Amino acid sequence: MIDSLIEKIQEKKNPTVAGLDPKLDYLPEEMVKKAFDEYGETFKGAAEAIFEFNKTLIDALYDIVPAVKPQSAYYEMYGIDGIECLKKTINYAKEKGLYVILDAKRGDIGATSEAYAKAYLGKTDIGEKQEPAFDADSLTVNPYLGTDGVQPFVEQCLKFGKSIFALVKTSNKSSGEIQDLISGGKPIYEHMAELVKGWGMDNFGKYGYTQVGAVVGATYPEQAEVLRRVMPHTYFLVPGYGAQGGKAEDVAKSFNGDGLGAIVNASRSIMCAYKKNGGEVGQAARDEAIRMRDDIMSAVGAV
């Protein structure tokens, strides 16, 4: 539930999430070489190197960040071995007490969305048993197919105590081609915000936030300020800080007056901090995560 994420944020006084979007170019050469020496230049070798990289990051971060956000595409491109690495990464992060937001942006017609929802948030029927496939705590969802594409995810949230973050105003440069179009006197992203608010109305947690969150990019602070007013009880996942140009004063627009309401993501700036600043992978990532926390908290205030 979103309550679990909020409690981890409060415990660590840190409203940030570390993105785990690895590819071989981001890894130290010696880490890749070690895996290739053992498994060859294969998907298996790549996946083993990436899992070692992820473990190094998680070990360095788990006591200071409340959550991690693996992006599914960076694992899928390494085939079955990459998907296995994703599952192992989710399990390892949860063992370390981290809240896991799986960034897969799933969404389809109702029956297919139900399959996705069971795969990532719920359980799959296998004979007389039910087993979790990925068992993430939360999932990003593309809601632009409408209610019947989102409702299966909401149902799994209710059934298994999970959450989702639906795309509302995304951080990419061309998001406005669709999301900023005016319909009925207001932009499409505001219409989507109203839908997201409605989907969460029967699913409030004890801190006053629903289990249906929204993705709101740090690169559009004016829109975030509007959306915060439209969705006062919706938790925001805020991409775009750091490498994409979002600043602390920008992400502060997504928070409520209680210091809650948003969690800010950074991926490359944490994963690749050792390339920019030198030092070991884990320590460089930790130093950057602490810098990011302090920077954001200076604009947000107390959690």
From TrEMBL:
Origin organism of this chain? Monoglobus pectinilyticus
InterPro entries per record: Aldolase_TIM, OMPdecase_type-2, OMPdeCOase_dom, RibuloseP-bd_barrel
Q: Which NCBIfam families has this protein been placed in?
A: pyrF_sub2
Q: Where is the Orotidine 5'-phosphate decarboxylase domain?
A: 15-285
The name under which this protein is listed is Orotidine 5'-phosphate decarboxylase
EC number(s)? Answer: 4.1.1.23
Q: Which residues form the active site?
A: 105 (proton donor)
What is the catalytic activity of this protein? orotidine 5'-phosphate + H(+) = UMP + CO2
* Name of the gene encoding the protein in the UniProt record: pyrF
GO MF annotation list: orotidine-5'-phosphate decarboxylase activity
Q: Looking at the keywords, is Lyase present?
A: yes
* Gene Ontology BP term (one): 'de novo' pyrimidine nucleobase biosynthetic process
Pathway stated in the Swiss-Prot or TrEMBL entry: Pyrimidine metabolism; UMP biosynthesis via de novo pathway; UMP from orotate: step 2/2
Q: Which UniProt keywords apply?
A: Decarboxylase, Lyase, Pyrimidine biosynthesis
Q: Which HAMAP family has this protein been placed in?
A: OMPdecase_type2
